[in-house]
Specification:
The protein is α/β, with parallel strands linked by helices. It is built from eight helices and 13 strands. It folds into two domains: about 220 residues, Ribonuclease Z/Hydroxyacylglutathione hydrolase-like (Metallo-beta-lactamase, Chain A, 4-Layer Sandwich); about 50 residues, no CATH class.
């Protein structure tokens, strides 16, 4: 039998007491449940470099936002984390993966760009008091987009999965043309910021010891690239990367690692098809609708999520090239 709540009754006072208790302790309960979370599976792709591969999907209630390649580099002095996943919970599981490999301190958390699947686990590392590092334009982009990303997160990854997730901006930034060296003991990481490409805040991390480059979303493999910047700028950055001495890369999406420059062949081919398809339509006075209906179709069976992203990529390419 349900007991009716009457103002001032013992039942009402007891109910209010327990509501206050639950409110007080709910963060502790959340943190305790998170602390028991299973470490993310990681693969050692080169000496001291560990990568967790995300699924080739958009963030949803099954993958809980686990869609990007994220991981860490272990030196003699400490650890540098490179991207942190799509939520606090994923970030915590990545932190658990670090702790399963080494007891060394986490010195740096590096974000390769603004998108939430790469940055929303940042808060999980706050207790380690690392330096958070990103492109010089990253703080402004986080401020501009963060509230929108957070507002949609529960909808995308499931009720309660977003709990604890915050926008955590860099405490140190890297300017274009001014690379930053990080010595984590026995290995040096070179952080390079780029002009507008995938976004206007792309950054790479080069491990000099192994010749391994974390590209972030400057390189997509298997999953179709998504335009959020400039296709012409992106092409130039890929050309620059092809001229670098790189043994292997860790793409933002795709396998845990891949040989270079072969890893970018499919992406460069796709970009050429977009450009070659859009330019004649613009010259003939065609519209974006005309371009979306025709351009890129030869790539349809070569990429995951093609139908979801090719129309947007064609649109972005059209709006850029019509001003040439």
């Amino acid at each position: 039998m349900l007991q009716r709540s009457v103002p001032g009754s013992p039942f009402t006072r007891e109910r209010s007491h327990w509501l206050r208790v639950l409110t007080l302790f709910s963060p502790i309960v959340f943190l305790a449940s998170t602390a028991c979370a299973e470490p993310l599976a990681v693969e050692e792709v080169a000496e001291g470099i560990f990568v967790h591969t995300g699924s080739h999907q958009d963030a949803n209630r099954e993958n809980h936002g686990d869609i990007a390649n994220i991981g860490f580099v272990v030196g003699d002095r400490g650890v540098a984390v490179v991207d942190t996943g799509g939520s606090y919970r994923l970030g915590w599981r990545l932190r658990e993966a670090v702790k399963s490999v080494t007891d060394l301190p986490i010195l740096y958390v590096i974000n390769t760009h603004v998108h939430p699947d790469h940055t929303f686990g940042n808060a999980a590392f706050a207790g380690d008091e690392p330096e958070y590092i990103g492109h010089t334009k990253l703080p402004r982009q986080m401020a501009a987009r963060g509230d929108y990303y957070l507002a949609r997160l529960d909808e995308f990854i499931g009720e309660g999965q977003a709990e604890g997730t915050k926008v955590v901006s860099p405490t140190r930034t890297v300017a274009i043309g001014k690379p930053v060296e990080l010595d984590i003991g026995g290995r040096v990481l070179i952080l390079i910021a780029y002009p507008q490409a995938h976004t206007n805040n792309d950054l790479t991390v080069m491990d000099l010891k192994t010749g391994t480059l974390w590209t972030g979303d400057l390189v997509f493999m298997e999953r179709i690239p998504s335009m959020d910047g400039s296709i012409l700028g992106w092409k130039k950055v890929l050309e620059r990367l092809r001229g670098m001495k790189i043994t292997k890369i860790i793409p933002g999406h795709g396998p845990a690692s891949a040989s270079w420059p072969e890893a970018q062949n499919a992406q460069s081919r796709y970009f050429e098809e977009l450009i070659a398809g859009v330019r004649p339509i613009i010259k003939q006075g065609g519209t974006i609708t005309d371009a979306v209906a025709a351009v890129g179709k030869g790539e349809a069976d070569k990429w995951e999520l093609f139908d979801d992203y090719n129309p947007g990529n064609v649109t972005k390419t059209f709006t850029e090239l019509e001003w040439e």
